Amino acid sequence: MVNKDWESRVAYLGPEASFTHLAAGTVFAGEWLMPYATIPECIEAVANGEVEFAVVPLENALEGSVPLTIDYLFHDVELHVSAEILSPIEQHFMVHPQQVENWQDIEMVYSHPHALAQCHKYLYYRFRGVPLEQTTSTAAAAKYVAENPSRTIAAIGNEFAAKKYGLTIVEPNIHDFHFNHTRFFVLQKKNIKLDKKGHDNSPKTTLMIKLPVDDRSGALHQVLSVFSWRQLNLSKIESRPLKTGLGNYFFIMDVLDDEQSVMMQGAKEELRALGCEVKSLGTYFTYKKE
Amino acid sequence: MVNKDWESRVAYLGPEASFTHLAAGTVFAGEWLMPYATIPECIEAVANGEVEFAVVPLENALEGSVPLTIDYLFHDVELHVSAEILSPIEQHFMVHPQQVENWQDIEMVYSHPHALAQCHKYLYYRFRGVPLEQTTSTAAAAKYVAENPSRTIAAIGNEFAAKKYGLTIVEPNIHDFHFNHTRFFVLQKKNIKLDKKGHDNSPKTTLMIKLPVDDRSGALHQVLSVFSWRQLNLSKIESRPLKTGLGNYFFIMDVLDDEQSVMMQGAKEELRALGCEVKSLGTYFTYKKE
Question: Name one GO biological process term (chains A, B) (predicted).
Answer without folding.
Answer: L-phenylalanine biosynthetic process
